[in-house]
Write a structure and sequence with these properties.
The chain has helices at residues 6-15, 22-31, 35-40, 84-104, 125-139, 146-159, 164-171, 176-183, 188-208; strands spanning 46-47, 52-55, 58-62, 65-69, 78-81. With 215 residues, it is mainly alpha-helical. It has one domain (6-208): Intergrase catalytic core (hpI Integrase, Chain A), CATH 1.10.443.10. The strands form two sheets. Strands 1-2-5 form a three-stranded antiparallel beta sheet, with no helix packed on it. Strands 3-4 form a two-stranded antiparallel ribbon. A hairpin with a 4-residue loop joins strand 1 (46-47) and strand 2.
């Protein structure tokens, strides 16, 4: 899989800070939402005061049409915790959307979705893909797919020493084995850090006993 480093992601996000769908890219990159979950997210699913959002539905393509349905699996129906910066990003996005609504006037469609067209209509999932591809091309960063932002969210969380079970819940994986098999292998520094810290525990215990270890 292709993932950006934290420096590449930060550079990309800084360069698109004024994009109308900035909050969508942020949620994909830091909270691991899928494309269909972003397209299907409604404001009724977002609780900024509690700093949580609920993945309750998705918008996907089927037989040439966009349909609304349940998330990919039972495990994908999940509550995603939000940090203070993500709450700020979503709050700013809602304020921008309210300004768009006022500008559009009677042309505004109050669909209730978080990510919409300039007239308030829900977005097609493939629109998100195309827009993201164009933003990446203009950014000069290594090319990645929109879905790769989800991969990046997982690897960044693991690099930040987030427990694997927490990452599983964030992504909505049914099995922790899937999370481990998919992501741990792409972050060798996680394995090296685990090896160092395991050895440190034993060496510290030996030092406390006054019995240095040697090989």
């Amino acid at each position: 899989m292709a993932v950006w480093t934290e420096q590449q992601l930060a550079t990309f996000l800084a360069g698109i800070a004024q994009d109308r769908l900035y909050a969508a890219w942020w949620l994909a990159a830091l909270r691991g939402l899928r494309r269909g979950e972003l397209a299907g997210l409604r404001w009724t699913d977002v609780d900024l005061q509690a700093a949580e959002l609920t993945v309750a539905q998705q918008r996907v393509h089927a037989d040439g049409h966009v349909v609304v349905g349940p998330p990919k699996s039972a495990a994908s129906c999940r509550v995603v915790a939000l940090d203070a910066e993500t709450v700020r990003v979503l709050t700013r996005h809602r304020e921008r959307q309210e300004k768009l609504s006022a500008t559009a006037g009677t042309h505004w469609q109050d669909s209730g979705y978080v990510f919409t067209t300039a007239e308030g209509e829900p977005l097609r999932p493939d629109y998100l893909t195309g827009r993201f591809r164009r933003l990446v091309a203009a950014s000069g960063q290594p090319p990645i797919r929109l879905h790769d932002l989800r991969h990046g969210a997982a690897t960044l969380a693991l690099a930040a020493r987030t427990d694997l079970k927490v990452v599983q819940a964030m992504l909505g994986h049914a099995s922790i084995v899937l999370t481990a098999d998919t992501y741990v292998s792409v972050l060798p520094e996680v394995a090296h850090r685990a090896a160092r810290e395991t050895a440190r525990l034993v060496l510290s215990a030996a030092s406390a006993l006054g019995r240095p270890l040697g090989g």
